[in-house]
Amino acid sequence: MSATGTSEDPVGDGTRAVRAGLPEPVKHEPTLPGPVFAAHFHLPGEVSGPYSYGRDDNPTWTLLENAIGELEAPGRADVETLVFASGMAAISAVLFSQVRAGDAVVLPSDGYQALPLVRAQLEAYGVEVRTAPTGRDAQLEVLEGARLLWIESPSNPGLDVCDIRRLAVAAHAQGTLVAVDNTLATPLGQRPLALGADFAVASGTKQLTGHGDVLLGYVAGRDAEVMAAVRRWRKIVGAIPGPMESWLAHRSIATLQLRVDRQNATALAVAEALRQRPEVSGLRYPGLPGDPAHTVASRQMRRYGCVVSFTLSTRARAERFLAALRLVEDATSFGGVRSTAERRARWGGDAVPEGFIRMSVGAEDPEDLVADILRALDESAD
Ligand SMILES: *Cc1c(COP(=O)(O)O)cnc(C)c1O
């Protein structure tokens, strides 16, 4: 958990987060300029950049893209970042701009619940989709000849981890592109581009913005030609974020290090408390020593996320537990300052037991939260 600067990294994460993407100060102007609401920009004469039409570019996006780029790849001018209307818009932009009929793609079999829909769409377009579970680098067995490897580490909701550097080396040796869904880790937890990936892709809806009030996504990539195709996809599909959402996201990034450090430390405390409880099985948190993912996670992650998952004996027990919680809302999504939890099997689609709970740890006082969880476990006992 490095907080302060090192030689490769001249400033700490908190310093970087509060200043990320800010323009040079202008006298009598706010530090972070307000959202620019514009469908079109004044454009006399010849068509010229940077701003002409609001589906192509917007000054509020530019500042946010700079901010995310600084966090995903500090000090790297070769990395380009593009923001999207949602995480799914960003994911689809990478996949559908890069693959063609006849290509093969490797997706996680235990990844985000919308990936099976993406799979069906890719297959409808004549793309061969192979899947492999995230843990133990099982992707290596199905990589041969693939155009693109899609990694989700840690995976949602199972919190498995794979060795990104190892997979990227194997993929690049045969010309396969590598994209990493960095939603769960956030750029303060993991830097996929430094680990060798071609793309860091994420939903900004979760911990990046952290208040449960914005949908957003982004793609950061290091190859200009490849990123030009992603940009073209954004233009033709039009899955663009609103200026207000973009501005809210940028404002929220200023507190990213505070939120992530607090929430992740409390997530570890919650996991440690749950580990003592006999009615809890299948407990997963990559930051917990002894977790199956911990060894690999500690090599490639700088922080371990705010999500803890575990299983209670039955659906009824899990429902009683969720209803008994007072400080944790029964809600989907994760990463917000208010803790949430849900019985994941209620959605269908994830291969999880009926009593499986995904808990997102917020910014409440850790003692209050742990006490609430232990009380709810007691009250929901069979
Ligand atoms: C939520 C999520 C997404 C999708 O993001 P949206 O902003 O909801 O479109 C993608 N990947 C992961 C890992 C997620 O948790």
UniProtKB/TrEMBL annotation:
<dbReference type="InterPro" id="IPR000277">
    <property type="entry name" value="Cys/Met-Metab_PyrdxlP-dep_enz"/>
</dbReference>
<dbReference type="InterPro" id="IPR054542">
    <property type="entry name" value="Cys_met_metab_PP"/>
</dbReference>
<dbReference type="GO" id="GO:0004123">
    <property type="term" value="F:cystathionine gamma-lyase activity"/>
</dbReference>
<dbReference type="GO" id="GO:0019346">
    <property type="term" value="P:transsulfuration"/>
</dbReference>
<dbReference type="InterPro" id="IPR015424">
    <property type="entry name" value="PyrdxlP-dep_Trfase"/>
</dbReference>
<dbReference type="GO" id="GO:0019343">
    <property type="term" value="P:cysteine biosynthetic process via cystathionine"/>
</dbReference>
<comment type="similarity">
    <text>Belongs to the trans-sulfuration enzymes family.</text>
</comment>
<protein>
    <submittedName>
        <fullName>Cystathionine gamma-lyase</fullName>
        <ecNumber>4.4.1.1</ecNumber>
    </submittedName>
</protein>
<dbReference type="Pfam" id="PF01053">
    <property type="entry name" value="Cys_Met_Meta_PP"/>
</dbReference>
<dbReference type="InterPro" id="IPR015422">
    <property type="entry name" value="PyrdxlP-dep_Trfase_small"/>
</dbReference>
<dbReference type="InterPro" id="IPR015421">
    <property type="entry name" value="PyrdxlP-dep_Trfase_major"/>
</dbReference>
<keyword id="KW-0456">Lyase</keyword>
<keyword id="KW-0663">Pyridoxal phosphate</keyword>
<dbReference type="GO" id="GO:0030170">
    <property type="term" value="F:pyridoxal phosphate binding"/>
</dbReference>
<feature type="modified residue" description="N6-(pyridoxal phosphate)lysine">
    <location>
        <position position="206"/>
    </location>
</feature>
<dbReference type="GO" id="GO:0005737">
    <property type="term" value="C:cytoplasm"/>
</dbReference>
